[in-house]
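Batch job 17 of 40 flagged for manual review because the log was empty.
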Amino acid sequence: MADTDWLAAAFEEHRQHLRAVAYRLLGSTSDAEDAVQDTWLRLTGTDASQVENLGAWLTTVVARVSLNMLRARKHRHEEPVGDSWPGAAELAVQAGVGDGPSAVSPEPPADPQDEAVLADSVGLALLVVLDTLTPAERLAFVLHDMFAMPFHEVGEVLGRSPEATRQLASRARRRVRGASSPDHAADLARQREVANAFLTAARGGDLSALVALLDSEVVLTGDGAVVPGGRPTVLRGAEVVARGAIMSAARARQSELALVDGTVGIVWAPAGHPQVVLTFAVSPERRITEIYIVGDADRLDRLHLAALPD
């Protein structure tokens, strides 16, 4: 077997693990794939015969690549709009966030394209919380608590002492525990269920289904960028709002569920560029009480967006 063939085969043995590490660090399947590909390129430019532990070396490299991507993303205030976060909104407690490395399984699903399975192992609520951490906090928490990497190795990736790295992970752990409560996760699940039903009904022009989802006194507010006249719009009542949604059925068919500043909404983003964002207020009875539509470019730029599959 040629040296390049051996190297490729050895890399493939670790690819699933590297995808899992990069995904949990980046929260984006396409960004994770980019990080893994970058890791492969770096491996091909290295004398692999000098690497004592290939798995550890690859994990360190993909972590560094992901850290650089996180820092660049925060610096530019950009988010991976159009990238899909894996599937169903599982309760954070089912993700098993806890005190030690055994709390969350680091093993990815057998098929990395099976987004629903990947979501089962991570949990939508946990992903939302991870995205509120600083890049250093996120890396320390993910590598140590999820993948059992010792603090001195995590510190080498961050360029910090083991004690400083331990403090980063501890701070991140407290924030994760505080924000990924069962109530918060259940609220996300309810938002997602209602938003998905709304989008499905709007795509199909189903007036009765839309009215059933809306509170009788629902209020829709849209900024001036979403209507031809350029003036803010307010619609009131289930029938009126439902008919407005049906008029936008063509746009709805090109829209997708998304996390919008940590809550579930809908984004219309042709060619990956957000043009219109809807967010909802949902009652405990799963009725939509308020809808907010944002189309103003400056406001859209300030939103934190990440697409979700239906």
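Reviewer: the log was empty due to a logging misconfiguration, but the result itself is present. The radius of gyration is 22 Å. Unflagging and moving on to job 18.
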